[in-house]
Amino acid sequence: MANTSIVWKNQTKLRTGYTTGSCAAAAAKAATHMLVSGEVVGEVSLVTPAGIRLYLEVEDIVKENNYVSCAIRKDSGDDPDVTNGILVYARVTFAQDDVVKSKVILEAGEGIGRVTQKGLEQSIGDPAINLVPRRMIREAVEEELQKAGIDRGVRVMIWVPDGAEIAKKTFNPKLGIEGGISILGTTGIVEPMSEKALTDTIFVEMKVRRENGMDYCYVVPGNYGSDFLHDTLGYQEDAAVKCSNYVGEVIDDAVRLQMKGILLVGHIGKFIKLAAGIMNTHSRQADGRMEILAAHAAMAGGSRELIRQLMECITTTAALELLEKEGILKEVMSTVMIKIEEHLKHRAGDGLEIGAVMFSKEMGILGKTSDADRLAQKIQSRKKNV
After folding, report:
1. Is there a contact between 104 and 153 (Cβ–Cβ < 8 Å)?
2. Biggest CA pair distance of the chain
3. Residue 119 backbone dihedrals phi, psi, to 5 degrees
4. Of all helices (H) and strands (E), which one includes residue 354?
5. Digit-coded pLDDT (tens) for 154-188
6. Are strands 189-190 and 17-18 parallel, antiparallel or unpaired?
7. Are 167 and 114 in contact (CB under 8 A)?
8. CA distance 191 to 198
9. Could you please report the per-residue DSSP string of 106-150?
10. Rounded to the nearest 5 degrees, what angle is found at the Cα of 147, between the Cα atoms of 141 and 148?
11. Using CA atoms, how far apart are residues 89 and 181, in angstroms rounded to an integer?
12. How many CB atoms neighbour CB 53 within 10 A?
């Protein structure tokens, strides 16, 4: 079993795990050891790029005259990862060609995705095995060959039997990776509920859009925004990047990638917070929804009793009903959108065009920033030409 560790997140004790990259490297290391030594091993140790040594159980060993294959079971710790529990396989065989002497030839089999769009670490057509896992696999195999004093090249095949089905539940289809999962990991360790892992994925998704001709795109927090784009606005949701709660980070990513413009489309429950400059919309970071609505209602001439009722609301739906009943909903949304635009443009700077559309499920579009319609037209035109 792996010696995973404990971390604290939001006052909760959570168990770390290890990446598909660590699994692939450990499986390749174990298979190489069994190939060159002739012995069967039930456990393999691996030092991750984070400097943590893992002790991993080796499963499903197949040992033939010319190759050895085995698997390592992925353990994501307490991270909600769809790849948790999958078996990552490696098969190692000696290369027959003297040209590849002392080299590790890495190949991908069933369940490993293939890159179909620009913007990822690997070129179009290459297997989705990222650079750090490739290095981990190569170094693990070379270590075993050197220990045994063997100066021959080997071929290492990595595969995941359920990879194609599992990949449907990941970001891979949106990133242009088809046919399977990716072999990932920069540290070799999975940190539960890692914000960096999510923001890194958001960056890659936008990078893929940018390098495939989409220098303008939509940004939505999640499925509500995607559905609204398609069902209500009639826009293509595949021209959108999902930002979750990380509005500020996605704006920074757009600037870093030299995007020309982004249009944020989101539900009032999250986007009302932008009117106060709150760029991480998770309730754990900040709320302020009712305070914002109450302040703008006061500016619109709302009564003291209305302000009190707004401050007692639990949901934005209830607050909107009060504003509509008072007859000031349109005016409140107008000033809210002005503040949203102000804060978005301040974060984006001068080099990025930015706008927003805010909606509710019950009332539809509540407000738009001044550039929203123009940005939508630019995104649609870019989409047609991609």
Report:
1. yes
2. 86
3. 110, -10
4. strand 353-360
5. 999 999 999 999 999 888 887 889 999 999 988 88
6. antiparallel
7. no
8. 11
9. EEE-TTB-EE-STTSSSPTTSBSB-HHHHHHHHHHHHHHHHHHT-
10. 95
11. 13
12. 11
